[in-house]
Structure formats: structure tokens, C-alpha cells
Amino acid sequence: MRLPSRLRYLVMMARYTLTNDMADLALRLVGPGARARVAAEAPAGTRTLVDLLTGTGSVLLEYARRFPGARLVAVDLDPRLLRVVAKRLTLSGYMGLEGVEADAREVPLPAETADVVNISFGLHELKRRDRACVLGEAARLLRPGGTLIVSDYRRVRGPARPAAALYYRLAEPRWIGEMFDGGLERQVRDAGFEDVSRRGNLPLTQLITARK
Ligand SMILES: C[S@@+](CC[C@H](N)C(=O)[O-])C[C@H]1O[C@@H](n2cnc3c(N)ncnc32)[C@H](O)[C@@H]1O
Fold first, then answer.
1. pTM over 0.85
2. Which architecture, in CATH terms, is 5-211?
3. How is residue 1 annotated by DSSP?
């Protein structure tokens, strides 16, 4: 039996989210508005945005809603995920996503291509040295004055702390603590970015913006 296209898409999303993208699932559960708040950081007039480590593209979807006429480029190693994201954006009304199947440490795009580079919930998956390489690529891809927007997990305090700690322990890499308490922000600075600022008031999320 052939499922209707929207149902097929939902089944596909659920499968990829469960196997590849726990961040997407966690944010769907605890912070559905967080991704729109991340996308709100892109300056008005953004014309080219490159999304590194796209995964299921949850923040990319918000950029597509905000900038329906912009050039959006998704970079991921996994071609199946790039197809999922293209479908996801098409269903939301954005046509023409450029999927680049590539290593985010060495992206086959010219330097100074992008007004904005977004990296959401991907860096925590990588070891420190690879995070540095990806941030270096982000700097290369941005035009001078362009904006880097990084969102990723943060340390959770207060009553939700035990649940968050359990989730991090079960679902995320053991080095995730390197991202917390300014660790990720320092790596952004070390990659040469300026005006680095960090906010930690979104559910599960730290939001870092910086300028090239
Ligand atoms: C957790 S997901 C990203 C989540 C997504 N950006 C979001 O906002 O929901 C991590 C993604 O990074 C991709 N990935 C891991 N290492 C990579 C690399 N070196 N280059 C490109 N993509 C990579 C994986 O295929 C996976 O799709």
C-alpha cells in the first residue's frame, strides 16, 4: 500500500528524528518556540544563508519562513537527510533548497559566500578539534561583516536539571560538558569571530551570535 505523500513524509521525519536527530526531538518537546527565536537573530535582508550540519533542518525551516526569497544552502554528510530537509521546506512553501553533500570541515563552496552561517545543535556531536574546523569553515564562508549564529545545548539548572542531565547522559556524546559554561563561546572566539555574545535563556539552548 502506498501512503499519501504527507503521511510518508511524517513517517520519514519520525524515523530520521529518532535515529539521527535527538536534538530536534528534545526541542520539539520542551522548546517549540526556541528555533524561531534562533532564526530571529539573522539580520533583515539576509540573502544567502548556509546551514552547516543541517540534520533534519529544524532551524533551517524557520529561516525559510523568515526569508522566503533568500538562497538557503544546507550542508550535511548524509544525502538522505538532505532529501528529507528539501521535502520539509517544500511542504512549508520554500522551493529550491540547495543541498550540499559534504563534510562541514571542508565545504565545496567559495569563500565569502554567505551573509549568515547557521550551526544548530550539530557542534556538540563533534570532538573539539572537528568543532574548531567547522567553525573555521564558517568563518571562511561568511562575507566580511557576516553573522554566525550557533545554537546548541546548555547546562540546565533548577528543577529541570536532573531530567536534562539524564537526557544528556543517555542521548548525547560524553564530551557534551565541553560546550557548557562558556566552552562553546570560547571556541567561537578562537575561530577568529568578533562581537561574540551568548544567551542562555532558551529551553535547553544556548544561543551564540558573532560577526566575522
Ligand atoms: C544533530 S544533527 C543536527 C541538528 C540540526 N542542525 C537541527 O537544527 O535540528 C547532526 C548532523 O550533522 C551531520 N554531520 C556530522 N558530522 C558531519 C560533518 N563532518 N560534516 C557534515 N555533516 C556532518 C550528521 O549527518 C547529522 O545530520
1. yes
2. 3-Layer(aba) Sandwich (3.40)
3. -
